[in-house]
Amino acid sequence: MSIIEALILGIIQGITEFLPISSSGHLVLLQRIFGIEEPVLLFNIMVHVGTLAAVCTVLWKDIWNLLCKIIQPLTLLLIIGTIPAVIAALFIKDFIEGMHSTAVYLGFAFLITSSLLVFSELFYKKNTPDKAAKNEPAVKTRGKFNALDALVIGIFQAIAITPGISRSGSTLAAGFFRGLSRDMAVRFSFLLSIPAILGALLLELIALVQAESSGNIGEVPMIIGAVSAAIVGFFSVRLMLKIVRERSLFGFAIYTGILGILVLIDYFGTKIFL
Can you name the residues that pair with 180 across neighbouring β-strands? Predict the structure, then answer.
């Protein structure tokens, strides 16, 4: 892997980890376009460390409050929300790895992401104005966020283990379907990303220990990939917080929809990249 390729992959990881367009799907796609065949376990670990540093930096106040008072409702909700992804990672890990080996799944997965974003936004916009008109809380805030909400969001996150289905997009969509406020939905989604990223790191470390080779990538490309993922990820988290609070997700839906169609066209027809 060259320095330029590492830089591009790090930037893409930093952007797509937090924007609702699927980081795993973009990395699989770019690795195929670049023709990267060697194992990239150690590189994947480094860019995940970068994105973990980014989200922890932006949400340090929320994380500090959790660390200062571990036993609180939000901690329990995060645990409940994490359990489905843990179960999925343990029991369908081989199936998911098989999906990485063929690009045909990517096109359909990007289209699923697009559909989730569209339907969740339509649902949110349809249901919140009516409630607000009756002088009732239009959405659930932190005090009304319950265990069932966290479980549903966790199930959507587990589904997003599939490359091409966005983790942040799925959890945001689930939050909207459950009637959470936009601010609560995006904050919980990002807090939930921390154990998810840590879990991905653990699985990749285990795979690294078991693998005969971690890939002859070199120290400089790995460092560049990690640093670029951290810097870009920092701004991506801040941007996403602002977008979700003030705008709709339709733009991301259009992007993933077009990308999914292009991937399928290339896979079944043109054969330029895949």
Answer: 140
pTM comes to: 0.86
Of the CA atoms within 13 Å of residue 89, those in its CB half-sphere come to: 19
> What does the block give as tokens for 218?
């070199």
Structural domain span for residue 100: 3-270
The more confidently predicted of residues 274 and 227 is 227
Q: For tokens 């376990």, what's the residue?
A: 41
Compute CA distances 18 → 9, 49, 271, whole Å: 15, 14, 30
Element (H, E) at 73: helix 73-91
**Could you tell me if 187 and 162 are in contact, meaning their C-beta atoms sit under 8 angstroms apart?**
no
Average of pLDDT values for 215-221?
71
34 vs 258: CA distance, rounded Å: 21
Residue 75 has a CB neighbour count (10 Å cut-off) of 13
Instruction: Name beta bridge partners: 140.
Output: 180
* Domain count of the fold of the chain: 1
pLDDT, one tens digit per residue, over 44-71 is 778 888 998 999 999 999 999 998 988 8
Element (H, E) at 186: helix 182-210
Query: Which residues have C-beta within 8 Å of that of residue 110, sequence separation ≥ 6?
Result: 22, 25, 164, 256, 257, 259, 260, 263
- If one counts every other C-beta atom within 10 angstroms of the C-beta of residue 11, the result is 19
Retrieve residue 233's tokens: 């990820």
Phi-psi bin for 38: left (phi > 0), alpha (psi -120 to 50), beta?
beta
User: pLDDT by residue (tens digit) across 67-117?
Assistant: 898 888 899 999 999 999 989 888 876 676 666 556 678 899 999 999 999
pLDDT band at 134 (very low <50, low <70, confident <90, very high): very low
Q: What is the pLDDT of residue 188?
A: 94
